[in-house]
TrEMBL record, chains A, B:
UniProt keywords, alphabetically: DNA-binding, Repressor, Transcription, Transcription regulation
Name under which the protein is recorded: LacI family transcriptional regulator
A GO MF label: DNA-binding transcription factor activity
InterPro entries tied to this protein: HTH_LacI, LacI/GalR-like_sensor, Lambda_DNA-bd_dom_sf, Peripla_BP_I
Taxonomic lineage from the root: Bacteria, Pseudomonadati, Pseudomonadota, Alphaproteobacteria, Rhodobacterales
Chain ranges of the HTH lacI-type domain: 6-60
Domain of life, per lineage: Bacteria
Organism expressing this protein natively: Marinibacterium profundimaris
Pfam entry (one): Peripla_BP_3
Amino acid sequence: MSGKPVTSVDVARKAGVSQSAVSRYFTPGASVSKKMAEKIRVAAEELGYRPNVLARAMITGRSRIIGLVVYYLENQFYPEAVEKLSIALQENGYHVLLFMASNTVGDVEPVVQSILDYRVDGIILVSASMSSTLADRCKAQNIPVMLFNRDQPSQDLRAVTSDNVEGGRMAAGMLLKGGPKRIAHLAGFEGSSTQQQREEGFVAALAEAGHQLHSRAVGNYHYADAADAARELFDVPEPPDALFTGDDHMALAALDVIRIELGLRVPEDVAVVGFDDIPQAAWPSFNLSTVRQRMNVMVSTVVDELIAAVEGEDRPERKLRIAPVPVYRGTTRD
Amino acid sequence: MSGKPVTSVDVARKAGVSQSAVSRYFTPGASVSKKMAEKIRVAAEELGYRPNVLARAMITGRSRIIGLVVYYLENQFYPEAVEKLSIALQENGYHVLLFMASNTVGDVEPVVQSILDYRVDGIILVSASMSSTLADRCKAQNIPVMLFNRDQPSQDLRAVTSDNVEGGRMAAGMLLKGGPKRIAHLAGFEGSSTQQQREEGFVAALAEAGHQLHSRAVGNYHYADAADAARELFDVPEPPDALFTGDDHMALAALDVIRIELGLRVPEDVAVVGFDDIPQAAWPSFNLSTVRQRMNVMVSTVVDELIAAVEGEDRPERKLRIAPVPVYRGTTRD
DNA sequence: GCCAATTTTGCATACGATTGCAGAATTGCG
DNA sequence: CGCAATTCTGCAATCGTATGCAAAATTGGC
């Protein structure tokens, strides 16, 4: 029950040097003679000393903490993002303070507020947006913010997304190959940029091919809502024979309804295309054709940009769009 | 580009009071007169002041940060755990510093080491274990550690798990109702306590009913490994007609192989029971019978215990086991 | 071996808050 | 209104580390 953690002063005393020497030994760029370094190394090892990141943060003004805000983790896209972002940041010596902004917690505002209390070095908002007053606040405190998989009109906020308009066009192309008669769209949350852009590209490409939307329903990116929306679309006299869903998570819900509840055949009766390419899309039970977001590229891009911003570099590019990739599997006809 | 964040000194100056008064205003138990409180409130509001958590942590020795260690997030059980743990801790004024201990990062040791550098108030290891030297280190620094969904022989470490032996017995009971002839087990990672205990209960209950294992393979709690293991078990002349998998994630992989690859019928040819009751188990495509871990109870228990420990209370109970619940769906016969 | 140029080293201060202590202000009661 | 009891308030020290500055030690060239 020793309780007290070891400090640099303890190490200094034990090694017979000054506290500053110990500090310098643990600071990459500093100059320490070999003799001292060795004495300090030994003493530190014996005492099990490790520098206190919090104390260091007070002086340097860098906490090496990145605030990561996520709405929910039900859709497998998010756990994958969180895992990869976290690993990438860890590899760069940063760590992730995780904040859930789910409905149970309330709004994003207070959540971001409490992030700022921790004096994080930067913030990544995953599929979430930010009021401009809050964005101003971050800017005032010099804390870079990056949006991941979501964009916002505000010119100032940096964002990394897929090229969603292009992705929507791809989805249209994938469905059009099968010669569909009635094309439907199952939309995600209407307020999101991702939804708006994907639908925009989708509808535009349909129009160019002389088609228009047969029907449309909203699933808000949630499984249960999407299942309801699918019922609304398909449990009618003339159901669609092609469906583009705003993301894979909703596509899986739609497949469950279409095949299991309604007994329709995929892709013979209905072709389905999703968006994201989450791991489950590749599972044999679903075997979902989809538009892949290149997660690894998106993650390394956002981490790279954020760290550059944290370290004071001001890159000109604010909106980074990654090209998506069509993935043909078993839910489309050709 | 004001850069400098607002400090309590700024607020004090603006409000015409001492810095300590400002500090007291933001400290729940402290005494401040109404007049001062009002002046401070106004000044703080105008300047947008919020106390620096890091500075506070230095004095009080409490960072209000909890280190959360997770191996990976592919299995939906983990995102759900992370989400709920995070929310529960947020509600109690704590926040989560997330650490991935996946293979790409290497061992758990250095990860936990860097957690300690942040002077966290406590640590939750989700389905991970800890060397005893590291555990000693945490104890020396007075940092409580809780294991979640994993146990370890060491008497000292606190752990919250399901009653896995009992859960294994339940799984046996669920399969035995269907009058199986050949019962197989698809095991998770053999080094884990969860695996050992679930299998122990399962085999014991089979024995009591006059049965024994027909075959067994190892899936290490990974989708791909589990799919291979399922092929090993079922792509043979006399395949099993009942299967218990170490968790739901592997059960889904097994179902994909059994139904789609091999064309067997579930539950007519093979009955399947999983463990966890992850959200996907309830999806119509799987409709998996399983043994539910009561996530909400487990989460509130572990958070409750951890916070009690952080705040100095020393509860006697170290190993907390939550009773699991059988969930009958469409993959079992009766 | 001497002196200038270069490294190392320690001292002292700062970061932004909390908190014990003692004096100032307020309150309560006869 | 006076005095004791109580509540507020400010001063100053403290947490654990980083860092500018000046003194001490080392190095190098001749």
